Structures are given as structure tokens and as C-alpha cells.
Automatic annotation (TrEMBL):
Its EC number is 3.6.5.-. It is found in: Cytoplasm. Mg(2+) binds at residues 172, 192. GTP binds at residues 165-172, 190-194, 281-284, 310-312. HAMAP family: GTPase_Obg. This is GTPase Obg. PANTHER family: DEVELOPMENTALLY REGULATED GTP-BINDING PROTEIN-RELATED, MITOCHONDRIAL RIBOSOME-ASSOCIATED GTPASE 2. It comes from Mogibacterium diversum. Belongs to the TRAFAC class OBG-HflX-like GTPase superfamily. OBG GTPase family. It is an enzyme of class 3 (hydrolase). Keywords: Cytoplasm, GTP-binding, Hydrolase, Magnesium, Metal-binding, Nucleotide-binding.
């Protein structure tokens, strides 16, 4: 099964907690602090791999977690860093942050990498909190929490040439006789329900050709296989529009040609700026020569070159492929469209990290929140006076008490931080 879209949840590793330990030495208060720092958590890293062709693996596994950092140890020993988790995706996969809807990276080349979620930093051991007043700190810093992110993986095939046209016009047959690909071929509509790729070797050159599954009227709105496969045309350099000119099914080739062009235009008008060759297929089974002549004249008046072929009988294939090579040799890459990318620097900077937020809860308690506050709170030893003072000083320095009083905090009121509640009394 060809899967070209998936949604997964990635979680980087949590930073290890700093250690609270003391040396065993005479004449040193409490033996002296010697708690080591925690190790950083592992990163989530995407890697583009040209050995992969589908996002099938992500259909069955949706959660990916990197290793947590190890906690710090005595004698100022650092905790071990968590192992990174590499997630391999097919070349051509676009990685999108679901929350913002912004593109994180287009994995367009083999070996491309993306650190999509950085591991949390390890917390500092209690040795860092010693000062002239606090000789034996009985607390350390908690490791940073992991980064949890939902990302959308969207695969757009990397191919030089795309075969487009209605179902059952001979695209799969053309691919099979031009390359070593073995697509399913049969005389009924929608034989191809997955895109097929093949490599054309011609003289000393080669290119990748993709059989894009049959487009029908209304495809740009999701009819039939719709947008699921129209998007795979976007990366191609040259289009070969395959039209059944035999009239064997009572179809009008001019009408078919117009409808496919219209669907491409409605999906993305830029597709029509790509070089397009028209393959008048099943020429060996033409029922009406007059209609064939009308079709060729119509297409040529549209500024397109027509190649009379029979994919099944292998007629005219060489001339079509020669022209395709020539178009690829003369291809000029259009200017890239401006895309708004996910801002990793802003994400890492987190300007609101040290800010506090105060509000009154539905039950009357006064709530204080903040990312840095949460980290210090998780590091607090509530049985140690020095640790409690460290927490209180942060709250006061950041204006937390003033904010609470501004919304009505009085002595005896309940203050809530995380899941901890206490009564407030003014000093």
C-alpha cells in the first residue's frame, strides 16, 4: 500500500535532574555539596532516505520518543546524555508542524536531516547553588521537560517526468515499456491506485518517470483519487499528457485533453507552465482518422507537440523519449515560491519562559503559572528552608506576588502552583 500522508507525535528526551549529594569530609558543613548535573535528553531527528518509497510505517506506529537524560550523580559526575532517535522518511517528505501549520523542512535530497524536537537540558546539581550564606544547599535543578510536538508528514514524489491523463489511457503500459518498472496493467479504470516510478535509461542519460494515478473530472476537489495524487505532479519537471485517441470507448480525445488541462489549472495553474508533451496513444487501434487529425491540429494550435504512439505495440516510444530528454536538458528551474517556514530560533528562544501569569480559578484559588516557575517548582525541596526561599525569591523577583495582589489576593487566601496549594500570609 502506498501511504503518502501521516500524522505522528514526537517527544524528545527529558533532561536528567541535578543531584543533591554531599561529600564525606571532616570540617566541611554537611560534607559539602557535590551533586552533578543531569544529562541532556535525546533529540528527535528526521533523516531522508532514498531507499524508502512510502510512509507506510507511520500508519501503524504514531508515537516516537527519544531517550531521557540520566540524572546527575555524586562526586560532581554528570548524567549520561539521552540517545537521539532517528526517524527515516522517504526523499520528498515535507515535515509540517501541525499546531502552526508551517513547514519545518522539505526533505528533498537523500541524507537531508532535521532536528524536529530538541531534548530538554539537564538540571544543575546542588553544587551550583552553594554561596556564602547557603553553604549546604539541599536542593538541585530539575531537568527540562521534553518537547512534545505533533507533526504531519506529507510525501510528494521526486520524479523528473510525470505521466498524466484519464484512467485506462495507457500510462502504466507506457511506463512499463519505457523503464524496468512493473506496474499493474489491465483493461479497466483505476488499474493504478498508487503512483509508480521507473527509471528510463537512454543513451548515456537517465531520468525518473512517474505514472500518476488516473485523474478524473473534479479531481481538484478530491473526486476519484483526486488531490491524493495530483500533488505528486508538483515536483516533476516535464509532463507527458497521455490521451487515448483510438475512440474504442466512444471517448472524444479533444474533450479528454481539455478536461485534464482544466483539472491541472484548477489544482495549481503553475502546473501548466511546465513543459508538456502530448502522447496520442493507441494509434494502432484508431477508429476515426478524421477525429485523430482534428485532435492533432487542436493540440498543436495549443502550442504542444504531439507524438503518435502505441505503448502496447511499442510504436513511437523512442521518438517520445528523445523529445523528453531534450526538454529535460533545456529545463529551467522556476523561481521558488516563497514559503513561510517554522521558526526554530523563536521556538527555542521562548521569550515567555520566565514570565508569570496570575489569575483566579473557578474555585476561588489564586493561580500562578509560568514555564520557569514550573521548572523551579519541580526542583523545590519542600522540607528544606533554603530551597523554599529560592522558590519564593523567584516569585517575588518576577512580580508574582504583586500580580496576585492586583487581582485581589489577601492574607489567608489560597495560592496554587501546579498541584500544590498553600495559604498566603504577608511578611
Amino acid at each position: 500500500m502506498f501511504v503518502d500522508r501521516a500524522e505522528i507525535i514526537i517527544t524528545s528526551g527529558k533532561g536528567g535532574d541535578g543531584a543533591v549529594t554531599f561529600r564525606r569530609e571532616p570540617y566541611v558543613p554537611e560534607g559539602g555539596p557535590d551533586g552533578g548535573d543531569g544529562g541532556d535528553g535525546g533529540n528527535i531527528i528526521f533523516v531522508a532516505d532514498n531507499n524508502l518509497r512510502t510512509l507506510m510505517d507511520f500508519k501503524y506506529k504514531r508515537k516516537y520518543e527519544a531517550e531521557n537524560g540520566q540524572n546527575g550523580m555524586r562526586r560532581k559526575k554528570y548524567g549520561k546524555r539521552g540517545e537521539d532517535l532517528e526517524i527515516r522518511v522517504p526523499v520528498g517528505t515535507m515535515i509540517i508542524d501541525k499546531e502552526s501549520g508551517l513547514l519545518m523542512k522539505d526533505m528533498a535530497h537523500n541524507g537531508d536531516t532535521l532536528v524536529a524536537a530538541k531534548g530538554g537540558k539537564g538540571g544543575k546539581g546542588n553544587v551550583h547553588f552553594k554561596n556564602s550564606i547557603r553553604q549546604a544547599p539541599n536542593f538541585a535543578e530539575a531537568g527540562e521537560l521534553p518537547k512534545v510536538r505533533t507533526v504531519i508528514l506529507e510525501l510528494k514524489l521526486i520524479a523528473d517526468v510525470g505521466l498524466v491523463g484519464f484512467p485506462n489511457v495507457g500510462k502504466s503500459t507506457l511506463l512499463s515499456v519505457s523503464t524496468c518498472a512493473k506496474p499493474k496493467v489491465a483493461n479497466y479504470h483505476f488499474t493504478t491506485i498508487d503512483p509508480n516510478l521507473g527509471v528510463v535509461d537512454l543513451y548515456d542519460k537517465s531520468f525518473v518517470m512517474a505514472d500518476i494515478a488516473g485523474i478524473i473530472e473534479g479531481a481538484h476537489e478530491g473526486m476519484g483519487l483526486g488531490i491524493k495524487f495530483l500533488k505528486h505532479i508538483e515536483r516533476t519537471k516535464v509532463l507527458i499528457h497521455v490521451v487515448d485517441v483510438s475512440g474504442s470507448e466512444g471517448r472524444d480525445p479533444i474533450d479528454d485533453y481539455k478536461k485534464i488541462i482544466d483539472e491541472l489549472r484548477k489544482y495549481d495553474e503553475r502546473l501548466l507552465a511546465k513543459p508538456m508533451l502530448v502522447a496520442a496513444n493507441k494509434i494502432d487501434a484508431v477508429c476515426d482518422e478524421e477525429k485523430l487529425t482534428e485532435f492533432i491540429e487542436f493540440v498543436e494550435n495549443e502550442g504542444k507537440r504531439v507524438f503518435k504512439i502505441s505503448a502496447a505495440a511499442r510504436q513511437g516510444i523512442q521518438e517520445l523519449l528523445n523529445a523528453t530528454i531534450n526538454e529535460l536538458d533545456n529545463y529551467v528551474e522556476p523561481e521558488a515560491e516563497e514559503v513561510e517556514y517554522f521558526d526554530f530560533e523563536k521556538d527555542e528562544l521562548d521569550e515567555d519562559f520566565k514570565k508569570l501569569k496570575a489569575y483566579r480559578a473557578y474555585d476561588g484559588a489564586f493561580v500562578l503559572e509560568g514555564k520557569q516557575l514550573s521548572k523551579i517548582f519541580r526542583s523545590t525541596n519542600f522540607t528544606d528552608t533554603g530551597s523554599m526561599r529560592y522558590l519564593y525569591k523567584f516569585i517575588v523577583d518576577r512580580g508574582g506576588i504583586k500580580m496576585l495582589k492586583k487581582i485581589g489576593l489577601k492574607e489567608g487566601d489560597t495560592v496554587r502552583i501546579e498541584d500544590y496549594e498553600f495559604e498566603y500570609y504577608d511578611d
